[in-house]
Structure prediction request, 95 residues.
Amino acid sequence: MTELVAARPLPAQGPLLWQQTLIGTANGFGQAFSVAVDNQGNVVTAGGTNIGFTVAKFDRDGTLLWQQNLNGTGYAFSVAVDNQGNVVAAGVTEK
Prediction:
């Protein structure tokens, strides 16, 4: 199982609001490198696993809305969301 974890931002001394794990391959390797929040409070995370570049969007309660993977070895290092909710991610991948 590969874990790419996103947690909703929390107050400095408050409780963890939510945590979500994305399932991938069996070697357990995955990392999130960048997080952005849209104007609806949804969280977008970018990172990668041994199977590729991964970008995922969660609603404000931590429910996965969508996940996009580019197969190959790679990582998304940066993610941004514009005022209309469009997501842009940048990174590297090798096929």
